Prior knowledge:
The chain is mostly helical. The protein is built from 13 helices and 2 strands, in the order ααααααααααββααα. It has a domain at 20-89: Orthogonal Bundle (434 Repressor (Amino-terminal Domain)), CATH 1.10.260.40. The chain has helices at residues 3-9, 20-35, 40-47, 51-60, 65-75, 79-89, 98-105, 108-118, 123-129, 134-147, 173-181, 183-186, 210-242; strands spanning 150-153, 157-160. The N and C termini lie far apart (74 Å).
Amino acid sequence: MSAECLSTMKPQQKPPEPMADTTALIEVIKEELKSRDLTYADMADALEMSESTVKRMFSKKEMPLSRIDDVCRFLGTDFADLARKVAESTPLMTELTYEQETAVVKDPLLLLAAICVLSYWDFEQIVQTYAITDAQCTAKLLALDKLGVIELKPMNRYRLKVAKTFRWRSDGPIRGYFMQNVVGEYFAGRFDREGETLLMVHGNINRAVAPNFVERIQRIGQDFAAQHLADKKWMKNTAMVSL
Length: 243
C-alpha cells in the first residue's frame, strides 16, 4: 500500500480540549467584563483587535499568553488578582473517589503524605519527622497534585484544594485501613497525661435527639481543626520573630 493511501486513511484528529485552568481564567475574565459593564466590542477596541476575534477567543476558551497582559491592563487589574479569583471559583474537593482512595491506601508513603498535607504540615516537617527522603516526599506531593488534593508550587510549597468539609469516604478503603490498623492502637493508650482524657458514658438516648449530639460532636471537630490552624500560624509567626 502506498504512503499516499496510508495518509488518506489516517483518522482525523479532534482539536485538543482547552485546559481546565484556561477555561476557568476565561470565565473569570468574562465576569470581570460583566461587573464593569464592558462588552467584547470595548475589549476589541482597546486591544486593537476585531470584535469577531475577541468573541472567538471566548467561545473557544483560548487566549494567548501574550494577550493576557493586555487584557489585565484593559481591566485595570493584574494576573495575580485574576489567578486568585480563578482559585476561589474552583470547586473544592470534598472526598476522593473510591478508586483514588484505593490507590492512596496501597502506597503507605502516599497515605502518609496525604495525612500530613491535610494537617497542613510543610515539606520540611514531613521529611524531618518520618523516614522519607526528599525525593520520595516530592514524588508523593506530585501524586497528590495529580489527584487534585493539592496544588504543588515551587520549592515544594503547596495549596490545599479540598473543602473544610473534606472527609474520607465512610465506605472507603482508607477508613477501613484506619479501623483495622489504627483505632485499636490509638485506644490502647492510657489517656492519663495532662490535656488527655477518655470519657465513657453509659446509657441510651432517644433517637429523635441523637442528631443533635452528632452535630455537637461535629462542631467539636471543627473547633479542633480551627485551633490546629491557629496554632500552626502562631508557631510560624513565633519562628519568624525568633529569626
